[in-house]
Specification:
The protein is 46% helix and 17% strand. The chain has helices spanning 8-24, 33-40, 50-58, 63-73, 82-89, 100-110, 122-125, 134-141, 144-150, 155-163, 234-266; strands at 166-174, 177-187, 192-203, 205-206, 209-210, 220-224, 227-232.
Length: 272
């Protein structure tokens, strides 16, 4: 029997909090990003924008299909159920219900990667630890890792860093901004890994609208681009760490295999 969502409005607001930062930069989603900020703002009691957020969510060409995939795998009616939204942006046990076969079919048919020139083969993207969350899409589906390997520009690494959902610990509150300690991505030229904690400044409020209540010093928060999108519980931090570790391992394994192929070709041996 299908599970009814415990509160679709909470799910809509959760989606809006994470979707607002890239939408405001014009990077993804339809026009109307201010609605995402206003409707998801802490303290907002109005449901006037609820339908608008749902309509905007459908316009996110990558995120919405993933939400539908996760919901269907768990027999949840609403793709904007709060549990589904958490699974996509942060990670939770709902991701375990999406099989390798279902993920491969989704990538090939729904996202059309099997027919996209230059896209990595679907079979290469799907591995036992692959999960249909946002960080999987950032590292494995988007072309930024491939560009990182082939370019000396710092831009691919910057985008990977900002676009992924990352965790940080609040060190200081300063007006509408926070100083947080987080682990940035480092590229050695052959592998991608997390560096030691460093300080970065992010927003939690704009024009009186806040995506999250004022986090306290020491709190763990979820970061997307230059915004705090949620205050995380310890288990949620663990989910983010785990899925990030899986993706980095997959990236490094792919880089290693490509290096071996290139070396074999250079030596005249058949590529494995």
């Amino acid at each position: 029997m299908s599970l009814e969502p415990p509160g679709a409005n909470r799910g809509e607001r959760a989606f809006a909090r994470f979707a607002y930062p890239p939408s405001a930069l014009g990077l993804c989603g339809p026009e109307g990003f201010e609605t995402l900020l206003e409707t998801s703002s802490i303290g907002s009691e109005s449901d006037a924008g609820s339908g608008s957020v749902r309509e905007l969510a459908r316009g996110f060409e990558a995120a919405w299909p993933y939400l539908e995939l996760i919901a269907a795998a768990n027999e949840i009616v609403d793709p904007l159920d709060e549990r589904v939204v958490e699974a996509y942006w942060v990670g939770n046990s709902l991701l375990d219900s999406v099989t390798e076969a279902a993920l491969g079919d989704f990538l090939g048919r729904r996202l059309g990667l099997a027919f996209t020139p230059g896209a990595r083969p679907v079979g290469e993207l799907v591995h036992p630890r692959a999960s249909p969350n946002h960080n999987f899409h950032v590292f494995s589906v988007y072309p930024w890792v491939a560009l990182l390997r082939s370019s000396r520009s710092p831009e691919p690494l910057r985008i990977l860093e900002k676009c992924r959902i990352r965790w940080g610990q609040v060190a200081e509150v300063a007006g509408d901004q926070l100083r947080v300690l987080s682990q940035g991505l480092c590229w050695t030229g052959s592998s991608l890994h997390l560096g030691p904690p460093r300080s970065e400044t992010v927003a939690w409020r704009k024009k009186g609208y806040a995506l999250e209540s004022v986090p306290t010093r020491g709190a763990w928060v979820a970061l997307h681009w230059d915004w705090v999108c949620d205050v995380l519980e310890r288990d949620q931090v663990g989910e983010l760490r785990e899925h990030t570790a899986f993706e980095l391992a997959a990236v490094n394994d792919t880089t290693s295999r490509q290096s071996r192929r290139a070396a074999n070709v250079a030596q005249g041996a058949p590529a494995p």
